[in-house]
Protein backbone atom coordinates (compact mmCIF):
# COMPACT_ATOMS: atom_id res chain seq x y z
CA UNK A 1 0.00 0.00 0.00
CA UNK A 2 2.83 2.41 0.86
CA UNK A 3 4.34 1.89 -2.60
CA UNK A 4 1.01 2.56 -4.27
CA UNK A 5 0.53 5.77 -2.31
CA UNK A 6 4.10 6.85 -3.05
CA UNK A 7 3.52 6.26 -6.75
CA UNK A 8 0.35 8.31 -6.63
CA UNK A 9 2.16 11.13 -4.82
CA UNK A 10 4.91 11.13 -7.46
CA UNK A 11 2.37 11.26 -10.28
CA UNK A 12 0.56 14.12 -8.56
CA UNK A 13 3.81 16.07 -8.19
CA UNK A 14 4.50 15.65 -11.91
CA UNK A 15 1.04 16.92 -12.81
CA UNK A 16 1.30 19.88 -10.45
CA UNK A 17 4.73 20.82 -11.83
CA UNK A 18 3.39 20.91 -15.37
CA UNK A 19 0.30 22.89 -14.36
CA UNK A 20 2.36 25.43 -12.42
CA UNK A 21 4.88 26.02 -15.22
CA UNK A 22 3.42 25.08 -18.62
CA UNK A 23 6.40 26.52 -20.54
CA UNK A 24 10.17 26.45 -20.14
CA UNK A 25 10.23 30.23 -19.72
CA UNK A 26 7.81 30.03 -16.80
CA UNK A 27 9.75 27.20 -15.15
CA UNK A 28 13.00 29.16 -15.44
CA UNK A 29 11.39 32.34 -14.14
CA UNK A 30 10.11 30.44 -11.10
CA UNK A 31 13.64 29.22 -10.29
CA UNK A 32 14.99 32.75 -10.71
CA UNK A 33 12.52 33.96 -8.09
CA UNK A 34 13.40 31.32 -5.52
CA UNK A 35 17.06 30.34 -6.13
CA UNK A 36 18.78 33.03 -8.24
CA UNK A 37 22.26 32.53 -6.81
CA UNK A 38 22.23 28.78 -6.33
CA UNK A 39 24.42 26.53 -8.53
CA UNK A 40 22.39 24.95 -11.31
CA UNK A 41 24.84 23.70 -13.96
CA UNK A 42 28.30 22.52 -12.89
CA UNK A 43 30.66 21.03 -15.48
CA UNK A 44 33.91 19.11 -15.24
CA UNK A 45 36.14 17.91 -18.06
CA UNK A 46 38.51 15.32 -16.64
CA UNK A 47 40.72 15.52 -19.72
CA UNK A 48 41.36 19.27 -19.63
CA UNK A 49 40.81 19.87 -15.92
CA UNK A 50 38.11 22.47 -16.58
CA UNK A 51 35.47 23.27 -13.99
CA UNK A 52 32.67 25.67 -14.89
CA UNK A 53 29.67 26.50 -12.74
CA UNK A 54 26.56 28.47 -13.65
CA UNK A 55 24.15 29.76 -11.04
CA UNK A 56 20.47 29.89 -11.93
CA UNK A 57 20.89 33.56 -12.87
CA UNK A 58 24.01 32.98 -14.96
CA UNK A 59 22.34 30.04 -16.69
CA UNK A 60 19.31 32.21 -17.49
CA UNK A 61 21.59 34.91 -18.94
CA UNK A 62 23.39 32.41 -21.16
CA UNK A 63 20.07 30.97 -22.32
CA UNK A 64 18.75 34.45 -23.15
CA UNK A 65 21.87 35.42 -25.12
CA UNK A 66 21.89 32.15 -27.03
CA UNK A 67 18.17 32.38 -27.76
CA UNK A 68 18.80 35.84 -29.18
CA UNK A 69 21.40 34.37 -31.54
CA UNK A 70 19.02 31.62 -32.64
CA UNK A 71 16.32 34.15 -33.50
CA UNK A 72 18.33 37.04 -34.93
CA UNK A 73 21.20 35.24 -36.65
CA UNK A 74 19.79 31.78 -37.41
CA UNK A 75 16.25 33.05 -38.11
CA UNK A 76 14.57 30.47 -35.88
CA UNK A 77 11.12 30.79 -34.39
CA UNK A 78 8.52 28.62 -32.70
CA UNK A 79 8.19 25.44 -34.73
CA UNK A 80 11.77 25.44 -36.04
CA UNK A 81 13.94 22.37 -35.49
CA UNK A 82 17.51 22.12 -34.21
CA UNK A 83 20.00 19.27 -34.02
CA UNK A 84 22.47 19.58 -31.13
CA UNK A 85 25.59 17.61 -32.09
CA UNK A 86 27.64 18.25 -28.96
CA UNK A 87 29.76 16.25 -26.54
CA UNK A 88 29.10 16.47 -22.81
CA UNK A 89 29.58 20.15 -21.98
CA UNK A 90 27.94 22.98 -20.04
CA UNK A 91 26.78 24.48 -23.34
CA UNK A 92 24.44 21.52 -23.77
CA UNK A 93 21.99 22.68 -21.08
CA UNK A 94 22.34 26.26 -22.34
CA UNK A 95 21.48 25.36 -25.92
CA UNK A 96 18.59 23.15 -24.83
CA UNK A 97 17.17 26.03 -22.82
CA UNK A 98 17.68 28.48 -25.68
CA UNK A 99 15.80 26.20 -28.08
CA UNK A 100 12.93 25.75 -25.64
CA UNK A 101 12.76 29.47 -24.91
CA UNK A 102 12.18 30.31 -28.59
CA UNK A 103 10.01 27.23 -29.20
CA UNK A 104 12.45 25.29 -31.37
CA UNK A 105 12.23 21.51 -31.23
CA UNK A 106 15.43 19.55 -30.59
CA UNK A 107 15.59 16.64 -33.03
CA UNK A 108 18.06 13.99 -34.13
CA UNK A 109 17.96 14.42 -37.90
CA UNK A 110 16.51 16.65 -40.60
CA UNK A 111 16.77 19.89 -38.63
CA UNK A 112 16.46 23.47 -39.83
CA UNK A 113 19.71 24.23 -37.98
CA UNK A 114 22.64 22.06 -37.01
CA UNK A 115 24.67 23.17 -33.97
CA UNK A 116 27.90 21.46 -32.98
CA UNK A 117 31.68 21.48 -32.77
CA UNK A 118 33.89 22.31 -35.77
CA UNK A 119 35.11 18.77 -36.44
CA UNK A 120 31.55 17.51 -36.89
CA UNK A 121 30.21 20.11 -39.35
CA UNK A 122 27.95 18.55 -42.00
CA UNK A 123 28.61 19.47 -45.64
CA UNK A 124 25.42 21.43 -46.21
CA UNK A 125 22.43 23.10 -44.59
CA UNK A 126 22.16 25.86 -42.01
CA UNK A 127 24.99 25.30 -39.55
CA UNK A 128 26.40 26.90 -36.41
CA UNK A 129 29.61 25.93 -34.66
CA UNK A 130 30.61 26.51 -31.08
CA UNK A 131 33.95 26.23 -29.38
CA UNK A 132 34.26 24.34 -26.12
CA UNK A 133 36.82 26.61 -24.50
CA UNK A 134 36.27 29.08 -21.65
CA UNK A 135 33.34 31.47 -22.12
CA UNK A 136 32.37 29.74 -25.39
CA UNK A 137 34.88 31.91 -27.23
CA UNK A 138 34.78 32.19 -31.00
CA UNK A 139 36.21 29.42 -33.16
CA UNK A 140 39.65 30.20 -34.58
CA UNK A 141 38.84 29.33 -38.19
CA UNK A 142 35.13 28.57 -38.70
CA UNK A 143 34.17 26.91 -41.99
CA UNK A 144 33.00 29.27 -44.71
CA UNK A 145 29.27 30.02 -44.56
CA UNK A 146 28.90 28.62 -41.03
CA UNK A 147 27.73 30.75 -38.10
CA UNK A 148 29.98 30.97 -35.04
CA UNK A 149 28.12 31.14 -31.73
CA UNK A 150 31.19 32.52 -29.98
CA UNK A 151 31.27 35.52 -32.29
CA UNK A 152 27.56 36.24 -31.91
CA UNK A 153 26.50 35.77 -28.29
CA UNK A 154 28.50 38.73 -26.86
CA UNK A 155 26.28 41.14 -28.79
CA UNK A 156 23.10 39.81 -27.21
CA UNK A 157 21.48 41.22 -24.04
CA UNK A 158 21.12 39.26 -20.80
CA UNK A 159 17.34 39.16 -21.28
CA UNK A 160 15.56 37.58 -24.23
CA UNK A 161 13.73 40.30 -26.15
CA UNK A 162 11.73 37.97 -28.37
CA UNK A 163 8.41 36.27 -27.73
CA UNK A 164 8.87 33.19 -25.51
CA UNK A 165 7.37 29.94 -26.75
CA UNK A 166 3.80 29.10 -25.85
CA UNK A 167 2.61 25.93 -24.10
CA UNK A 168 1.89 24.15 -27.38
CA UNK A 169 5.46 24.35 -28.71
CA UNK A 170 7.20 21.03 -29.37
CA UNK A 171 10.34 20.77 -27.24
CA UNK A 172 12.22 17.51 -27.74
CA UNK A 173 11.87 14.77 -30.34
CA UNK A 174 8.13 15.21 -30.82
CA UNK A 175 7.27 15.89 -27.18
CA UNK A 176 5.84 19.20 -26.03
CA UNK A 177 7.06 20.91 -22.88
CA UNK A 178 4.15 19.52 -20.84
CA UNK A 179 4.91 15.97 -21.96
CA UNK A 180 8.65 16.41 -21.47
CA UNK A 181 8.40 17.93 -18.01
CA UNK A 182 5.69 15.48 -16.98
CA UNK A 183 7.88 12.54 -17.96
CA UNK A 184 10.95 14.06 -16.29
CA UNK A 185 9.24 14.83 -13.00
CA UNK A 186 11.02 16.90 -10.37
CA UNK A 187 14.36 16.53 -8.62
CA UNK A 188 15.63 18.43 -5.59
CA UNK A 189 18.88 16.44 -5.64
CA UNK A 190 22.34 17.61 -6.54
CA UNK A 191 23.04 15.00 -9.19
CA UNK A 192 26.49 13.87 -10.31
CA UNK A 193 26.37 12.37 -13.80
CA UNK A 194 28.41 11.54 -16.87
CA UNK A 195 25.36 11.69 -19.13
CA UNK A 196 25.47 13.98 -22.14
CA UNK A 197 22.93 16.77 -21.47
CA UNK A 198 21.59 16.78 -25.03
CA UNK A 199 20.63 13.08 -25.01
CA UNK A 200 17.09 12.11 -23.99
CA UNK A 201 18.21 10.97 -20.52
CA UNK A 202 20.30 14.10 -20.07
CA UNK A 203 17.47 16.38 -21.16
CA UNK A 204 15.08 14.70 -18.71
CA UNK A 205 17.59 15.19 -15.90
CA UNK A 206 17.97 18.88 -16.76
CA UNK A 207 14.21 19.44 -16.86
CA UNK A 208 13.64 17.60 -13.57
CA UNK A 209 16.35 19.64 -11.87
CA UNK A 210 14.92 22.90 -13.18
CA UNK A 211 11.54 22.06 -11.68
CA UNK A 212 13.22 20.48 -8.65
CA UNK A 213 14.72 22.68 -7.24
CA UNK A 214 17.83 20.62 -8.02
CA UNK A 215 21.16 20.99 -9.77
CA UNK A 216 23.40 18.82 -11.92
CA UNK A 217 27.15 18.22 -12.01
CA UNK A 218 27.94 17.09 -15.56
CA UNK A 219 31.25 15.29 -16.12
CA UNK A 220 32.97 14.77 -19.48
CA UNK A 221 35.52 11.97 -19.90
CA UNK A 222 34.96 10.99 -16.28
CA UNK A 223 37.93 9.51 -14.44
CA UNK A 224 36.58 6.51 -12.48
CA UNK A 225 39.33 6.86 -9.89
CA UNK A 226 38.13 10.32 -8.90
CA UNK A 227 34.38 9.73 -9.08
CA UNK A 228 33.68 9.10 -5.38
CA UNK A 229 35.88 12.00 -4.29
CA UNK A 230 34.06 14.35 -6.64
CA UNK A 231 30.70 13.18 -5.35
CA UNK A 232 31.87 14.11 -1.87
CA UNK A 233 33.39 17.46 -2.85
CA UNK A 234 30.28 18.49 -4.81
CA UNK A 235 27.97 17.20 -2.08
CA UNK A 236 26.06 15.11 -4.59
CA UNK A 237 22.94 13.50 -3.18
CA UNK A 238 22.36 11.25 -6.20
CA UNK A 239 24.50 9.75 -8.94
CA UNK A 240 23.44 8.84 -12.47
CA UNK A 241 25.89 6.95 -14.68
CA UNK A 242 25.64 6.70 -18.44
CA UNK A 243 25.10 3.18 -19.79
CA UNK A 244 28.44 1.48 -20.43
Care to describe what's here?
With 244 residues, this protein is an alpha/beta fold. It has a single domain (2-240), classed as ANL, N-terminal domain (Rossmann fold, 3-Layer(aba) Sandwich), CATH 3.40.50.12780. Helix content is 37%, strand content 19%. It contains eight helices and twelve strands. It has helices at 2-20, 24-34, 56-72, 91-102, 149-152, 177-184, 200-211, 227-233, and strands at 39-45, 50-55, 81-85, 105-106, 113-116, 127-129, 147-148, 170-172, 175-176, 190-193, 215-220, 238-240. It has a five-stranded mixed beta sheet. Strands 4-3-5-6-7 form a five-stranded parallel beta sheet. Strands 8-9 form a two-stranded antiparallel ribbon. A hairpin with a 4-residue loop joins strand 1 and strand 2 (50-55). Helix 1 (2-20) packs antiparallel against helix 6 (177-184) and helix 6 (177-184) packs across helix 7 (200-211). The longest helix has 19 residues, at 2-20. The radius of gyration is 17 Å and the shape is globular. The termini are far apart. Mean pLDDT is 92; it is low at 2-8 and 11-17.
Strands, helices and their partners?
Elements: H1 2-20, H2 24-34, E1 39-45, E2 50-55, H3 56-72, E3 81-85, H4 91-102, E4 105-106, E5 113-116, E6 127-129, E7 147-148, H5 149-152, E8 170-172, E9 175-176, H6 177-184, E10 190-193, H7 200-211, E11 215-220, H8 227-233, E12 238-240
Parallel strand pairs: 1-11, 3-4, 3-5, 5-6, 6-7, 10-11, 10-12
Antiparallel strand pairs: 1-2, 8-9
Helix pairs in contact: 1-6, 3-4, 6-7
